[in-house]
Each structure stands twice: as structure tokens, then as C-alpha cells.
Amino acid sequence: MKRTLLTIFASALLLSAATAAALVRYEEPKPKGFSSATLTGYADYPPFGFKDRRNFYSLFQPLLDELQRDTGVRIDYDLYSRDIDDWAQLVRSGQVDFMVGAYYQTETFRGLYLLYPAPIHNPITVFMLPNRIDEVKTTEDLKKLKGVRLSKEIFSDFVERQADMLDLITVDTPYAMFEKLFTKQVDYILTSYYFGLYEAIKLGLRYQIAPAKQSLWRIPMFVAVAKTSRHREILSKRLTRYLNNKQIIEQIQQKLEQMIAEAEEKYNGTVPPTFGVENMPENTKEDLTPSTKAPDWVKQTDIPKDALLPADSAAPFEAVSEPLSPAPSTDAPNS
Predict the structure, then answer these.
(1) Sorting pLDDT into bands at 50, 70 and 90, what band is 83?
(2) Which of 110, 165, 241, 255 has its CA 20 to 30 A from that of 221?
(3) Model's pTM, two decimal places?
(4) For residue 148, which phi and psi values (nearest 5 degrees)?
């Protein structure tokens, strides 16, 4: 009996040791020579990325946090270049290791190593005055109207070609963009739903514009690695793993909702601009003067998870996703 107990005890010890060894082998060691990596991306395109005083806020933060926890790497941010073309060139040259928010088959991002899948899409839509949104139900209806877009908004080459078929003027500031709409110089705003909503909140115009129910185009936003980066292999492997982790993707969605909610709290009570409407003739300024009261069609509940597009705010558009070729491009990692 005693010998039997000793045998069982010894077997249990061996099993425990084997299990522990297996667990140790499963945990990857911290990569050597990977103490820091340089990142760039949108620095003035909320909520995708923006600077506020000395802080940088990114929609992709859950992905970056996982990289730091997993590898112990320090991420240095290069956000001092003037525009996205400069940032992409820094990655292309290898001066910066990776970036977030690159577009597929777009000249600006040519030569970058795109990692699949894209963690989020940038939905491009239109904002109109609520009393006019029912006039537009398809993209063909837009071609009969005049629109405005912001010069700093970067679309993919595919979407740029579609936008070229519309009657659009370009302005340099969000204020000027909304002013054109409220003074009836244009019929609609062409913008990213996320960015346009964020800028409307900042100006106190959240409840005075009506976004379309569905996006016109949904642009995949990729993480891209420099082909000449000495950390290319480790970045590509680790980041691709995270991009296929459902929990991390859900965290990015939650981060998006959090950033919109924080903006609403921060700018709550902002007095919206009148855009000179008070000086316009009485018969032209109906429904133009902004107010801070939410109209009936706005649901003041959780933001919908389906690309944050409101479920009942406007008439539907024909939803057209940006096409991706079935085979990866030359800039995409091989499977």
C-alpha cells in the first residue's frame, strides 16, 4: 500500500513538472534587441488619432498596448511631420518602423507592408440638414447636388475617384465646412462619419446635422510596417496575431465609442456658431439656426456598433464597400 502511494505521488510530481514545462515553453520570451519601435499615424484626424497639448490619443491604442505588454517594447511617436504623405514617406524610408491607418491600393501608402486583416473601416458618408436628408436616397441623387469636403481629409484612391464624379468644393477648416452647409452654399458635406461627427460635437452641432443611415464607401484602415525596418519580422508577426484576436478588435471598437463619448462630455454645453444666419433674410433662414436640443430622431443611448452609423437618423444610401482584390497586393504579407 505504501509503495502504491509513493508511485502515485511520484507520478503526480512528474505530471506537474511536465505541465509546468509545457506552460513555460508556451510563453514566448521577450524578443531580444527589440527595446523600442517608432510609430506614426494621424495626428489631427479625431478619433483615429490626434494630439491634445502634449498627449497623443489613438483609436488603435488597444493594439499598441498589447504590443507593449507582450514584448516590453517602448513605442516612440513621430508626429511632427506636416501631413500623412510625410508620415508615409518616413515609414517607406525606414526612419519610422510602422504606422496605423494606411489605405489599400493608394499611392500615398505605396511600398508599405500592410498587415491583414484591417482592424477597422473608415465609413465615408454625407451630412445634411435634417429637413433635406430625405431628398437623397442613392449616390446618383448626390450627383445632382453640390457638396463640400475638408482639404485635410485623406480618402483612398478608389474613393477619391468616386468623389471626383461629384460636384464638390474644398475648404480648409471644419468651421468653414459646416458654415457652407448652414448658409445653404452647399447641399451636403462629404466626410468620414467618425471624423465629421467628432467635429460637429466640438462645434456644438451634434444635433443639427443628419448623417446618412449607411455609408457610401467603407475604407479598410490597415496597420503598415516599414519594409526596411530592422524590426519588420517581429512587428509583422506579433501585430498580425493581435489583428486576428477578436478580443483586441472588440477593444478597438470600445475605444471608438469611448472617444466619442468623451468628446460629447468635454464639449457639452458648447454654444454652436450661428454662421451669420441671424443677418439673413427671414424667408431664407428657416431651420438654419443651430440649437442645443436633440431632435426626435436622435437616440441618446449607446452608439451602435455597426460602424457607429445611426439606425434611424436618415434615409438609406446604397452601401458600397471598397473592393479588395481576392489576392494580397505586393505590399501585403504572404500567407
Answers:
(1) confident
(2) 165
(3) 0.77
(4) -140, 150
